[in-house]
Amino acid sequence: MAQQIQTPLFFINAAYDSWQIRNILAPGIADPRGHWESCKLDIKNCVPSQIKVMQDFRLQFLSAVVGVGRSTSRGMFIDSCFAHCQTEMQELWFMPDSPLLNKTKIGKAVGDWFYDRNPFQKIDCAYPCNPTCHNRVFDNPHAHHF
Question: What does the UniProt keyword field contain (predicted)?
Fold first, then answer.
């Protein structure tokens, strides 16, 4: 669908979008024995075969993103974080420890692209390469809280 959009478009997304992994790649209904449960709570808990599945999921996503073309009207900040909604708060874009791509924060990348200072089109290397990521860790819904 993005290929048909004529207006300028800037993609900000995690290549390992935690919501997509939890709800599309490995939803509970497709994992009745719970093999993915620990992995979906914290990417550091994933076994190599699960990381491989997520790497393949990332490659499918990247092939779709690259399919929109390399025009400067298309910007992108695709990091390798296990996260979702990296745009909901402006603070996430400018915090001292915000995720970086090419030594650039989200806010600077978007601003440089929007104001035609730099056609920012960066895709991060594969997990776990980016030490600036804040990978999401979810609470275990089955844990007993006393």
Answer: Cell wall, Cell wall biogenesis/degradation, Hydrolase, Secreted
